[in-house]
Amino acid sequence: MTNDDAIKIALKNELISDIEAYQTLPKYKISLKFDKKMKHLLKNYENRESAKTGYKRIPLKNRLLIAAVIILSVAIITGGTLYITMRWADFTVKEYDIFAMLSISNAESYPLSLEERYEFTYNVTGYEKEVIDDDGIRFSVKYSDAKNKKCISYSQSIKDFYTTVRLNIENAITLPKEVMINGTTAIYYETCYGEKGVIWDIGDYIIELAATGFSEDELISMTEFVEKVE
């Protein structure tokens, strides 16, 4: 047995002992009358102390603001990490300084393999095609047009693949935002390199389109060319 194992056993036994001791304590409920009396006495004491010191209680809204400023200041001084959380439908995006983490809820309730396929029917004549993934849980393909400096990436993934996905938003032109695709919530963003991406829930799966050399409107219009394979 290692020292770590011995420590774990000792801590476990100590915790069990404390729980058993707590359960043997007599149950007691403070009466409502006594509780109100104590609150009244404490409030009067606070009022008297405030009058002596000239202290004025800061409103809750202002206290929360001060707390937020203190937290931000401490994080900056100590190098702590702050992030902004945004939620759209089942999507959650946590924005950090140079990247964002995208996740989707209830992924475990959906297929764990690509039982149905969706294809990208956009006209890619003149593009070079390269299949990146095709392992049964994710299918992704890249279309490149080196002459015109254009590139399109398309993927279909099971939802479990998106429980945690990193998005590169360092110096992003457009931070992740909500857009609508055929009445469905989607996440759109644009990296500092000009690559635009859109991710949306198509039912049992997640579709992602990314492109360079196209405008936001052009990329959004491409989503209409994602069709179920019958």
Looking at this protein, list some descriptive labels:
4-stranded antiparallel β-sheet; 230 residues; elongated; 4 helices; 7-stranded antiparallel β-sheet; alpha+beta
Explain the overall architecture:
It is a single chain. The chain has helices at about 5-25, 30-55, 60-80, 215-220; strands at about 85-90, 90-95, 100-105, 120, 130-135, 140-145, 150-160, 165-170, 175-180, 185-190, 195-200, 205-210, 225-230. It is built from four helices and 13 strands. It is an alpha+beta fold and about 230 residues long. It is elongated, with a radius of gyration of 28 Å. Strands 5-6-7-12-11-10-9 form a seven-stranded antiparallel sheet, with helices on one face. The chain has a four-stranded antiparallel sheet with strand order 1-2-3-8, with no helix packed on it. A two-stranded antiparallel ribbon has the order 4-13. It has two domains: about 30-80, no CATH class; about 85-230, no CATH class. Keywords: Membrane, Transmembrane, Transmembrane helix. It holds the Pfam family DUF4367.
